[in-house]
Design brief:
Strand content of chain B: under 5%
Helix content of chain B: over 70%
Structural class of chain A: alpha/beta
Mean pLDDT of chain B: 87
Order of helices and strands of chain B: HHHEEHHHHHHHHHHHH
Shape of chain A: globular
Low-confidence stretches of chain B: 1-19
Radius of gyration of chain B: 26 Å
Low-confidence stretches of chain A: 1-63
Oligomer: heterodimer
Number of helices of chain B: 15
Number of strands of chain B: 2
Largest sheet of chain A: 5 strands, mixed
Radius of gyration of chain A: 22 Å
Strand order of the largest sheet of chain B: 1-2
Distance between the termini of chain A: 33 Å
Distance between the termini of chain B: 27 Å
Chain lengths: 468, 318
């Protein structure tokens, strides 16, 4: 579901496809949930109020509100989130949430949200991905949830997600799901070509070279220039720190040494024709995943569903290993994930905050989001639910989740997105396309993205310093 | 046209003129009433949106400092326009569609004229069938056509590619940096040739047949009749189809947008229309998008009417 990060936002069909994929992939699992829902739906409301205090008292406002009934509007694109909303409405008789199903953020919902904010009639609640948060925060569009008990749920979440949603003591969103990265690889073909599962990027390169000399038609992986979300995740892993703030201005550092290192590395793979340049999440790419043309995919946790759905014939052939490292330091990156926000136009921010916190910390709600929405929860307790912590048949009964869970704990907590991410990532994708099309390099594309971002932010009136 | 004027002069004749005069003197609002539905819709869906786009293009949203407060909409005069003309990728998009038009429009119209002449020729058989068959691609929505073609272009799925390979012509990447524009041109040509053919064919049908007989009596071959009689007389249709094609070319959108999903060589600023769309709906800058749209509209206007002026002047001097 969270693939929309940095993906090229002008592709509505792709995100729509993803929604479908998530639904399809969770279909089997949802049978199980339906069964379990039948028995536990009655207890859902009681667990909501009794379990939460154990997590730090987040249920205090939940039980406190008993005034006149308020109506809230919620814009989300997560498949099956209606079931969570229904559960909430049942257990909170004085708060009624109306769900508006919208297309995924990058497919037009974000621009709709910005227009609504400008017109002063934004919904009470919305779905916003991590990378898009600063753009909403830094245009005064979000309500600080700290006064509404948000800080009390901090310890419920994977640490890096909390630094994404908070600025100082202010909390602008409640984390929902994440996309910790790992390496999907074809264990059958690794054995066939005599490759070792790489633990460092240097080994990954030598695997790529060995593979290509054995079979020139097979590639270690693909490179999709427009999919900057993947690149951002890899840079994040390498220690990049694209944006920072002082008390009065932004510091833009997209062209830092970590990002240059990653750009040069992939340029090397490209120049030696060791990776296949092709658009990901497209039919040709799915075929390459199915027929052994591509041996690995450095991707996020939701990628498990992408492979299982679109390369169904490769059951038992794939396995998951931690993302290769730079040298000896273990680190991970994140690709995707989103949050629940309360918009400034809400007349009932306190009640909206209750819903945002409940939605993402209540275990039955999380069960629903996992099974119907295909999400990997940001909630630590949620990560222990059996649906995301048990062997997966498609992956030869490997418990792939434990790799992602461990990865999520290694994600750099100081990485920040900037306030013009749509422009920055689109610009980067266009420059990467030109680089793979033969003009320029990934490294020069990064340098240009840096200067374009700085000048773009200045022209919008931001106070900016360039660190590059 | 001619039939009605003849009929009216036959029946009413002189009696009609005074009646019309008296009606005019009463100044009934009838004409306005009849025009009203059109005028209202024209204003609502044409003039007002254009006016609004022009208005929006003169503003910009500005933040300050870290930008923690809501942005302020400020009047910035023509500064969005200077940004548009200063954006290299937008200018490259314009150059790209111009190159596209210079190559694709003549090829398509030549092809359409050829098909129209073939159907119109005396030797043609099954003309109804062919007319429909050639026109059929136009009936398929552009997005659907682009999706179908995209499957034919995908390197590892394309039958075109596998046929070329089996004939040992080597592999060709139809989605490559230098080929994808012409792959798009192919889709557009496939889609619109039949449509243009139909307009040209109608033009051919309107030519009095006596002219061809006269030419034949004078000993002209069918080829000569086609080149010396039919072609010059069908020029108005060609002008019309050229103007339509120029407009269509500048507004190129759905084909590159669909192919973006499979090609790594179509950037979000590939055509001016894609730039404007992306600016409005992805980058959340409707003001700049409005300026782009206005520039594109004015450019299309200049090119279309420039072409019309050029062609009408030529026919006068002739």
């Amino acid at each position: 579901m969270k693939t929309t990060v940095g993906i090229d936002q002008a592709r509505p069909d792709r995100s729509r496809k993803h929604r479908r994929l998530a639904v399809g992939g969770a279909a089997a699992a949802s049978l199980m949930v339906l069964a379990s829902c039948g028995s536990s739906s009655k207890s859902a409301s009681s667990t909501a109020t009794t379990a939460a205090p154990a997590n730090g008292g987040s249920a205090a406002p939940t039980t406190a509100y008993s005034g006149p009934t308020v109506d809230l509007t919620f814009w989300s694109w997560v498949p099956g989130i209606q079931a969570s909303v229904d559960q909430f409405n049942q257990s909170h008789p004085n708060i009624h949430v109306n769900l508006d199903e919208v297309t995924s953020g990058a497919a037009g919902t974000y621009s709709k949200m910005f227009s609504a904010l400008q017109a002063g009639n934004a919904p009470d609640l919305g779905q916003v991905e991590y990378y898009a948060l600063p753009q909403f925060e830094h245009t005064g569009g979000l309500v600080n949830l700290a006064p509404y008990g948000a800080a009390s749920v901090q310890s419920d979440f994977v640490p890096w997600t909390w630094s994404q949603v908070s600025v100082g003591s202010a909390v602008y969103a409640i984390p929902q799901d994440t996309g910790p990265m790992a390496l999907f690889y074809r264990k059958d073909l690794f054995a066939k070509y005599g490759l070792t599962v790489p633990t460092t990027w240097a080994q990954y390169l030598s695997d790529a070279q060995k593979l290509h000399s054995e079979n020139p038609n097979a590639y270690i992986t693909s490179f999709s220039p427009a999919d900057t979300g993947q690149f951002a995740g890899l840079a994040w892993q390498a220690g990049a720190n694209w944006f920072n703030t002082t008390s009065s201005s932004w510091i833009v550092n997209i062209n830092d040494s970590a990002t240059q290192k990653v750009a040069n590395y992939w340029q090397q793979l490209l120049s030696q024709h060791l990776v296949k340049v092709e658009a990901d999440f497209a039919n040709g790419w799915y075929k390459d995943l199915s027929d052994g043309t591509l041996l690995t995919w450095p991707s996020a946790v939701w990628g498990q569903n992408t492979i299982a759905t679109n390369a169904a014939n490769t059951a038992n052939d794939w396995a998951v290993a931690p993302l290769p490292n730079w040298g000896s330091t273990s680190a991970d990156g994140n690709w995707g994930g989103s949050t629940t926000v309360v918009f400034k136009d809400s007349k009932h921010p306190a009640q909206a905050a209750v819903f945002a916190e409940w939605l993402n910390t209540n275990q039955p709600s999380i069960t629903n989001l996992i099974n119907k929405g295909g999400l990997y929860p940001a909630d630590l307790q949620g990560e222990k639910q059996s649906a995301v912590d048990s062997p997966v048949a498609f992956y030869g009964n490997q418990n792939i989740w434990s790799t992602f869970e461990a990865g999520g704990k290694l994600v750099n907590t100081s990485f920040k997105w900037g306030p013009t991410m749509f422009t920055t990532l689109t610009d980067m994708g266009n420059l990467f396309s030109k680089a793979t099309g033969g003009s320029g390099t990934l490294a020069s594309a990064i340098a240009t993205t840096q200067s374009d971002t700085v000048s773009g932010m200045k022209s919008q009136g931001f106070s900016v310093q360039s660190a590059g | 046209m001619t039939a009605t004027t003849e009929a009216s002069s036959d029946t009413a004749g002189s009696a009609r003129a005074p009646a019309r005069r008296s009606r005019r003197s009463r100044r009934t609002p009838a004409p306005i009433g009849f025009l009203a539905p059109f005028l209202v819709l024209f204003a609502l869906f044409f003039l007002i949106p254009i006016g609004y786009a022009v208005y929006e293009s003169l503003f910009a949203r500005k933040v300050s400092g870290l930008g923690l407060a809501a942005p302020v909409t400020k009047f910035v005069g023509l500064s969005n326009y200077s940004t548009v003309f200063g954006t290299a990728s937008f200018i490259q998009g314009i150059e790209r569609v111009l190159l596209f038009g210079i190559v694709q429009v003549p090829v398509m119209l030549a092809f359409a004229t050829l098909l129209a002449m073939l159907i119109d020729s005396v030797a043609a058989r099954f003309t109804r069938f062919f007319r429909l068959a050639f026109f059929l691609p136009y009936g398929i929505p552009g997005v659907v056509a682009a999706i179908v073609w995209s499957f034919l272009y995908l390197p590892n799925l394309s039958p075109i590619d596998s046929v070329l390979k089996s004939l040992h012509f080597g592999s060709i990447n139809l989605l490559g940096a230098h080929t994808v524009l012409w792959s798009i041109a192919n889709i557009v040509t496939w889609e619109y040739t039949g449509y243009n053919m139909l307009i040209i064919f109608a033009g051919l049908q309107a030519i009095p047949r006596e002219l061809f007989e006269a030419a034949r009596v004078d000993g002209a071959s069918e080829w000569k009749i086609a080149m010396r009689v039919k072609l010059p007389l069908v020029v108005p249709s060609l002008v019309l189809t050229s103007v339509f094609s120029i407009i269509g070319t500048l507004q190129l959108f759905s084909e590159p947008q669909v192919l973006r999903a499979i090609s790594t060589n179509i950037v979000t600023t590939y055509t001016p229309n894609l730039s404007a769309y992306n600016e409005a709906f992805t980058l959340n800058n409707p003001n700049l998008a409005a300026a782009m749209a206005v520039v594109l509209a004015v450019g299309t206007f200049i090119l279309s009417f420039g072409f019309l002026r050029l062609t009408s002047r030529r026919s006068i001097t002739r």
